[in-house]
Fold this protein.
Amino acid sequence: LLVSSRQEDVFRSLTNVSREMMLNNSTRKRDPFAQKIRESKHPEIVADFYSSGVIEVLRRWVENDYNYTVEEVFETLNNVLE
């Protein structure tokens, strides 16, 4: 699905879903990442920033711009989002 001809639509949808998940989680969770979104003057902008970054990393990895294992990509993203 990620390497289909409709790739831009897929990544736009994934970014939107990711953004909504981050916004929803920011009201329920008490970790520093959720707090950063929750306490922002403009939480939507912060969620857009992080979600687009995560999706861009995944897009580049799928397109073989990164020579990392699945574990390395997810560990790195997890560390960034902690």
